[in-house]
Design brief:
It is a single chain. The chain is mostly helical. The protein has nine helices and no strands. The radius of gyration is 21 Å and the shape is globular. InterPro entries: Homeodomain-like_sf, HTH-type_Tx_Regulator, HTH_TetR, TetR_C_Firmicutes.
């Protein structure tokens, strides 16, 4: 690769980062639908030509932000099993769970997106990506044959994302290490029974 090509590539990367940061900064101040491309480029200190050299629209820019986050999310999700042939869930050490670190490291971005009208898009994109890799990359040889694999994936991912988004909504009340530990405890907890509380007719 020539020096000119390297410089061009670095320039493209820098402009994309600046445009992504500009959109997120504006989204922390106003609704996505109210933001114009002119505002984005002015905030990023670029011109419209630079914007259209990288993106077709502000929706395209938003998709790039979400795609970038989703790619990082998948990398963190794969961390506990990508280098092993057999993934022993019951022996999973809490420190190998990297997904909470990903969300914590990008806390400002997720906080902005959580408060915006694009939240459903973010959740759907991440859910679909996680569902795809759990179905394609994780095989359970001892799984009960009566359990539908797709339904198992949907159940597990909704539980995981529900826990994560609750954590974000709490403004990251707990540390990533605490969330790692709690996730492992939740995965391994298999109560055989639960005591019911009898309510009186006056309650």
């Amino acid at each position: 690769m020539s020096e000119i090509t390297k410089k061009t590539d670095r320039r493209i990367v820098r402009s994309k980062i600046a445009l992504r940061e500009a959109l997120l900064a504006l989204m922390s101040q106003k609704p996505f639908t109210s933001i114009s491309i002119t505002e984005i480029v002015e905030f990023a200190n670029y011109n419209r030509g630079t914007f259209y050299a990288n993106y077709e629209s502000k929706e395209d820019l938003l998709d790039d932000i979400i795609a970038n986050l989703t790619e990082q999310l998948l990398q963190s999700f794969r961390a506990p099993y990508e280098h092993v042939e057999v993934f022993r869930i019951q022996e999973l050490p809490a420190k190998s769970v990297m997904i909470f670190d990903h969300f914590f490291q990008n806390s400002s971005i997720y906080t902005t997106l959580m408060k915006s009208e694009v939240l459903p898009k973010l959740k759907e994109t991440m859910f679909s990506a996680l569902k795809k890799i759990t179905q394609e990359e994780l095989i359970y040889p001892d799984q009960d044959k009566e359990i539908d694999h797709e339904l198992l994936s949907i159940y597990s991912i909704h539980a995981l994302l529900g826990l994560i988004f609750h954590w974000i909504e709490s403004e990251f009340k707990y540390s990533p290490s605490y969330m790692q530990d709690q996730l492992i405890r939740l995965i391994n907890w298999r109560p055989a029974s639960a005591k019911t509380v009898v309510r009186s007719s006056h309650d």
